[in-house]
Amino acid sequence: MTIPTLSIESNAPEQPSVSLDEFLAGVQQRAYMLARYATRGDDEALDLVQDAMAAFIKHYRGKPAEQRAALFFRCLNNRIIDFHRQRKRRSRWHWPWNSQDDWSADGPDALVIDSTNRQPASSAEQDQFGQALELALQQLPVRQRQVFLLRAWQGLSVKETAQALNISSGSIKTHYFRALNTLREQLEPHHENA
Amino acid sequence: MKTPETPTSTDTGPDAALERRIITHLDFRQETLTAETQLKLDRARRQALAGNRGSNRTWQAWPWLATASAACLALFLLVSLNQSDVLNPPETTDLDLLTMSEFDLLDQDPDFMAWLAEQDADLLDAERPEQEGSS
Lengths: 194, 135
Prior knowledge:
The structure holds 2 protein chains of 2 kinds. Chain A contains 7 helices and no strands. Chain A has helices at 20-39, 42-60, 68-92, 124-139, 142-153, 158-165, 169-192. Helix content of chain B is 73%, strand content 0%. The longest helix of chain B has 30 residues, at 58-87. The N and C termini of chain B lie far apart (98 Å). Classes of the chains: A mainly alpha, B mainly alpha. The interface between A and B is large, with 58 and 45 residues.
């Protein structure tokens, strides 16, 4: 499979030369969390991240540093889409172990965190907000969640996000607007109490 | 890694405050990933850099293994049930006898049924004085 060459104009300032290892070390945690929200499985998420890293190294190792983020998350997104496609295919054949068509409607499957590193000042309201946020993120449609996390959290521009997800800039804005509306509705009770 | 040149919604307003709170929570989640997860990510990165595609793909084999196990179990149960029918034919119970049409005596032998009823009545009469005397 040939991957077309991407030409991305990034809004980010020119960054100093960073090795591939340093770049991947910097994005691996967020990539894992994105994959974890999509797959709800630790091993699946790790595999997707590793596959994305391998594909990125194979095809884009020579690209400029300012294009790396969008290209890497494009590799990750492609694997997330493949994961969903395989899951849909299994559910079409009525696999009893994949009986749910809309797996995103399940309850939260919280990321495994190290509770010993929790900030002692964490309040009950913040915990409730966090739990509500985890549930809301997992219930978002795949595309809206990806757009929101890449734009709001990863800091990609509209154009970079569009390149990463292989959709138009207008679609990026629409998905982001819808995701934010949904999150606002579901988090409003917890957000107002803060 | 959020750059100031890439604003999402307006910098002020309730949506901006909500976005900031969401980002704060996600950053906290990222910082508190377990050490085991961190090690696995580091190993995955090293393997990718080394060109190795090795990974824990056992989760993809679970549906196949479960299906094969279920099929084997079903086959075993089927064979077991068939064997038990051959070696141990079901015994006829009294209930079976009573429900069999050949034993529908009321229709086939009413005289016998009447005699039987008389026997029961005689037994009741024989028991009655003892019961009155024991009160």
